[in-house]
Amino acid sequence: MTIICLGPKGSGKTLLLKNLKQDENIDATSSTVPTVGTYFTTVLLDNMKEVTIREVGGAMTPIWKNYFKGVRKLIYVVDASNLCQISAAGVLFYEIMADPDLAAAKILLVLSKMDVSYRQMRNEALLMMQLSRLKREESHRDIKVVEASGMTGKGMDELRKWLADAL
Ligand SMILES: Nc1nc2c(ncn2[C@@H]2O[C@H](COP(=O)(O)OP(=O)(O)O)[C@@H](O)[C@H]2O)c(=O)[nH]1
Ligand SMILES: [Mg+2]
Question: 66 CA distance to ligand 1 centroid (A)?
């Protein structure tokens, strides 16, 4: 079972994964180093099953594709508090959706940093990502949206549930 976590640099992937892992050493400074290469996290779910998630650093966008083979679930993280970054994130998201290696993958779109965002920005972000159009065009596909924060732990239960689903 391969799960990957993608998203622009600084969108909050590492902090999110640390939260999922319930890492005791999380603090605000522990994730400021951009992930170089890829980073693996193993998460123990409530049903005592373990899943391993591979974060592919945002700086590696040109070679994301190399990690798509065999991927069953994909977590795409966008920073909901940074609308400047969203359009570019949306373009990349569309590219990912079009990749034949991911045709059967379940997709989780994470709007991160909701602690410093607010509802209107969340709606704006989804509009800018053209999510409703994407859902229409990719109606066969399972796309779920979760609002999260690596600071407050918001959304972690939903994320864990999604990870445990149909393992
Ligand atoms: N306020 C806030 N800051 C966050 C959140 N998640 C990450 N950050 C900060 O954003 C920066 C980049 O986070 P990181 O997890 O390394 O991003 P990555 O490049 O996607 O792995 C760090 O300074 C984090 O402390 C969040 O949910 N809320
Ligand atoms: Mg990272």
Answer: 25
**What CATH number does the domain containing 28 carry?**
3.40.50.300
Which tokens in the block code for residue 27?
């603090």
Domain of residue 51: give its range: 2-164
Pick the closest to residue 81 from 107, 55, 119, 109 (CA basis): 119
**CB neighbourhood size of 37 (10 A):** 9
Ligand 1, atom 2, lies closest to the CA of: 113
Domain count, the chain: 1
- Of the candidates 4, 45, 2, the residue with the CA atom closest to the CA atom of residue 21: 45
Question: Binding site, residues?
Answer: 7-14, 35, 58
148: how many CB neighbours lie within 10 A of its CB?
Answer: 27
Each residue's pLDDT tens digit, 58-108: 777 788 888 999 999 999 999 999 988 898 999 999 999 999 999 999 999
Higher pLDDT, 19 or 24: 19
Residue minimizing CA distance to atom 12 of ligand 1: 10
Distance between CA 32 and CA 65 in Å, rounded? 25
